[in-house]
Write a structure and sequence with these properties.
The complex is a heterodimer.
Chain A lengths: L1 H26 L6 H7 L19
Chain B lengths: L1 H9 L2 H4 L12 E7 L5 H13 L3 E7 L4 E6 L6 H10 L4 E3 L6 H36 L4 H22 L1 H12 L6 H21 L6 H36 L2 E5 L5 E5 L8 E4 L8 E6 L2 E4 L1 H4 L5 E3 L4 E2 L4 E2 L4 E7 L5 H16 L5 H27 L3 H14 L3 H20 L2 E3 L4 H5 L4 E4 L1 H5 E7 L7 H11 L5 H12 L10 E4 L3 E5 L5 E5 L20 E6 L7 E9 L3 H10 L3 E5 L4 H11 L3 E3 L4 H13 L4 E4 L6 H6 L2 E5 L4 H6 L2 E3 L6 H36 L4 H20 L9
Parallel strand pairs in B: 15-22, 15-24, 22-23, 24-25, 25-26
Antiparallel strand pairs in B: 1-3, 1-4, 2-3, 5-6, 5-7, 7-13, 8-11, 8-13, 9-10, 9-12, 14-26, 16-21, 17-18, 18-19, 19-20, 20-21
Chain lengths: ~60, ~750
């Protein structure tokens, strides 16, 4: 029964984390444009400025 | 890593935002613009690029779902008008929505979603605890642990009910204040009583704890409520976009010959307005100078532009396609035909709001019966002398076990099954009570252009035209967006001819295309006048199959005539026949000319037809049928049909329809066939029968459980099992609709 002492709080905390994540997503407008988001991932970013890390190699 | 990519995709604002360098920061102003023709990811990207590169703009964010763009700009360097002009140059028709109340329905949406999320979290966790308690009853759970679980459940349930239950409590309170009963009254009462009693019993440490029942009921009902709300707010948003289209900027020619940009709201009858090619016309008026092609699709649903010149009437909401014109306004702002149509639609929508849904009818019967039984139980046990507390527990358990779970699911479960069946067959139901109203119809009224017909011209005399002529005409035609030109290209391609786009082609608005050949001479494609043909077979009579386009090759060869017809949908006649044989009345109401309507009606097999119907006349026709006791299903697509679609008992529109018409109608038919109309009616009728069956199942369930509850045999476990069993039975019955063979 000692397991309950941490299992129940763990279940509640995990649940609250999920709920918090959802409410955060809602507040920051992640569900505003469900159709557009699908296209946005196909969109290239602006070409990087000179001096920026072009290939992600860190050099 | 994957998470990081997601975040990037979600906050594309980063890429579209740019700093205004070397300038003092002024408080940016922001504007929300509706973009009528933003339909794809490409459009969205182009809009963000174009505006992002424009001077004075701080940030741009396009929303594809809402067809809107939010722009933050520096008011010293640019203005809404400039931004709209920039978009117009890029080919987008934009309108300022600043004066509309944008956020209300969005806020209601998000509010419900938050309550739904909280209820979902609570339902999952309480169920976890409850299952442990039930399992513990059969094994060796300590009383202390059970009590701990009950307290934990209470801790989660109380704030959840107080927060997530509010929409139901408010709706119930409103209904009660007006001395009415809706489904929310028994729902609210059951939730409040179950929660309240469970709290008291938790404090007293007994087993009558129903937190799980009340919170999961709340969760399931909120799902339904949210789906309903989000459908409605989407429709509302699209309607606001339309209203925004009325507001825009127009160039007014002043008396001294200079011109001035004015907001459309400030336009008055008598003003002279300059309309550039590609611009929307904001007034009803008469053309004073210039000749152009007018796209009237928004008003009439007709896809072929009308050629208009001096003295011709134009309407607000249409688009001037090919050349600039000067228009003298005869009506502006709220007096235009567009405003009138929108008003007609709104009035019709309000009348529809009075429809009483099946579930509410059931609630009006159910609530008094259950509440009386609860009271009888309480009084009977009091009279039997068990004390007020035991009597109250039993009475409340009657209310809980008859809790409207099965009843509240009876209709929605069928609706979901029916809607998904229709969805698979290309019909999207948008109105929540649309299927219920569809099940009651006995007359179907069709619009002609774009509904009964394809709304696209098709070449009919291809047999008379040689491959050579067709491919020469097609290579000229590739340069025009006129529907006839495109029909020529389509038929050339379907013959397998190679269409090489011609170069140096000139388009003359309202007339046609021409090209100077290197070898000398000129070839032309266009109207009879344009090609120098006078008269000719079918040019004067106004039937559908008029020779509408001519091709004049260079040299002295005779011109070739192209005839087009707006062909019926391939299964139009079959569908009408099926409706007739099912005993439904069929009629045709069209704004088109008599000859065209007559030939379409004959081809489709419709005896009742009316030509030249204006939007208000269409409503009058529907009222006439209604007065005869008919329930009418209206099927139509143009904006001119929108008021009729909203006024009819039920309505459907094809996917090609004007957006307003789709909002006004209960469902949208995808694809090129009409057969979904019969399918929809059949499904709607079966859905109604199944809803009634489900009420029957709920009644049988109550007939078994209520006596048990009244006798005091119900425990939380029995309540949970009985309630889920009835809900599952009702849902399973509804799911049969997905596979059932249906005939009208």
């Amino acid at each position: 029964m000692a397991a309950l002492a941490w299992l129940i709080p763990a279940a509640l905390v995990l649940g609250l984390l999920g709920l918090g994540a959802f409410l955060w997503a809602l507040r920051t407008g992640q569900f505003e444009d469900l159709d557009g988001a699908a296209y946005r991932i196909l969109d290239d970013d602006e070409p990087p400025q000179d001096g920026e890390d072009r290939d992600g190699s860190g050099r | 890593m994957a998470f990081a990519v997601d975040v990037d995709a979600g906050s594309a604002e980063r890429t579209a935002t740019k700093e205004l360098p070397g300038r003092q920061t002024v408080d940016p102003e922001s504007a929300v613009l509706a973009i009528e023709n933003m339909n794809c990811g490409g459009c969205m990207r182009k809009i963000e690029r174009v505006l992002g590169d424009a001077p004075g703009i701080a940030s741009v964010r396009a929303n594809l779902s809402a067809k809107r763009v939010t722009v933050a700009f520096d008011p010293q360097n640019t203005g809404t008008e400039t931004i709209i002009q920039t978009l117009a140059d890029a080919g987008f028709r934009a309108a300022d929505l600043a004066h509309n109340n944008l956020d209300d329905s969005n806020r209601a949406d998000r509010d419900l979603l938050r309550r739904l999320a909280v209820a979902g979290f609570a339902a999952a966790n309480i169920m976890l605890l409850s299952v442990s308690v039930w399992a513990g009853l059969a094994s060796d759970m300590d009383a202390e642990i059970r009590s701990l679980f009950h307290w934990l459940s209470a801790l989660i349930a109380l704030p959840t009910v107080a927060y997530s239950g509010q929409p139901f409590f408010r709706s119930a309170a409103t209904a009660l204040r007006a001395w009415r009963l809706n489904m929310d009254v028994p729902i609210s009462l059951a939730i409040l009583l179950a929660t309240g009693m469970s709290l008291v019993q938790t404090i007293r440490g007994t087993d009558h704890i129903y937190f799980d029942a009340s919170v999961s009921l709340l969760f399931f009902l909120l799902i339904g409520r949210y789906l309903d709300q989000s459908l409605r707010s989407r429709a509302k948003g699209a309607a606001q976009n339309l209203m925004g289209m009325k507001s825009g900027w127009a160039t007014v020619v002043l008396d001294d010959g200079t011109s001035e940009r004015m907001p459309a709201r400030a336009l008055e009858p008598g003003m002279r307005i300059l309309v550039a090619a590609g611009e929307r016309i904001f007034v009803d008026g008469i053309i004073e100078a210039g000749r152009t092609d007018i796209d009237e699709q928004l008003i009439t649903g007709e896809s072929v532009p009308r050629s208009a010149g001096d003295g011709d009437k134009v309407y607000a909401g249409t688009v001037c396609l090919t050349a600039p014109i000067e228009v003298k306004a005869t009506a502006a702002d709220n007096d235009t035909l567009l405003a009138e149509i929108t008003r007609l639609m709104e009035t019709a929508e309000q009348n529809k709001g009075r429809y009483v849904r099946l579930a509410d009818k059931a609630a009006a019967l159910y609530a008094p019966v259950v509440h009386t039984l609860g009271l009888v139980t309480f009084l009977a046990w009091m009279w039997a002398g068990v004390g007020w507390e035991a009597a109250l527990i039993t009475a409340i358990s009657v209310l809980i076990i008859t809790c409207p779970c099965a009843l509240a699911l009876a209709v929605p479960a069928v609706q979901v099954a029916a809607t998904s069946r229709l969805f698979n067959r290309g019909v999207i139901m948008t109105a929540a009570d649309g299927l219920e109203r569809l099940s009651e119809i006995d007359t179907v009224v069709f619009d002609k252009t774009g509904t009964l017909t394809k709304g696209l011209p098709e070449l009919v005399n291809g047999g008379e035209i040689s491959d050579e002529t067709l491919s020469a005409a097609a290579s000229l035609a590739t340069k025009s967006r006129h529907p006839y030109a495109q029909a020529v290209v389509r038929s050339a391609e379907s013959r397998g001819l190679k269409v090489v786009p011609a170069v140096d082609v000139t388009e003359t608005p309202g007339a046609g295309l021409s090209r100077q050949l290197v070898s000398g001479g000129e070839e032309r494609l266009g109207s009879a006048d344009w090609c120098g043909v006078s008269g000719g077979p079918g040019v004067t009579d106004n039937t559908q199959a008029t020779a509408s386009l001519w091709y004049q090759p260079a040299g002295h060869e005779a011109a070739a005539a192209f005839r087009f017809v707006d062909a019926l949908r391939s299964d139009a006649a079959d569908t009408i026949a099926a409706l007739h044989s099912a005993g439904l009345g069929v009629a045709l109401l069209s704004g088109d000319q008599k000859a065209a309507v007559k030939s379409a009606a004959e081809a489709a097999g419709i005896e009742d037809w009316f030509a030249g119907q204006r939007p208000d006349e269409k409503i009058a026709q529907l009222k006439r049928l209604e007065a005869k006791g008919r329930n009418v299903l209206m099927v139509g697509d143009g904006l001119n049909d929108a008021p009729a679609l909203a006024a009819a008992h039920a309505s459907l529109s094809p996917a090609s329809a004007a957006e307003v018409s789709q909002i006004a109608s209960d469902g949208i038919i995808q694809g090129h066939r009409l057969e979904p109309v019969t399918e929809t009616i059949a499904v709607a009728r079966r859905a109604r029968r199944m809803s009634l069956q489900n009420f029957g199942i709920a009644a049988v369930y109550n007939a078994i459980c209520i006596p048990l509850a009244m006798a005091g045999f119900v425990t939380p476990l029995i309540a949970a099992i009985a309630m889920s069993a009835s809900s599952i039975l009702v849902t399973a019955n509804a799911l049969r609709l997905n596979t059932a063979k249906l005939e009208l």
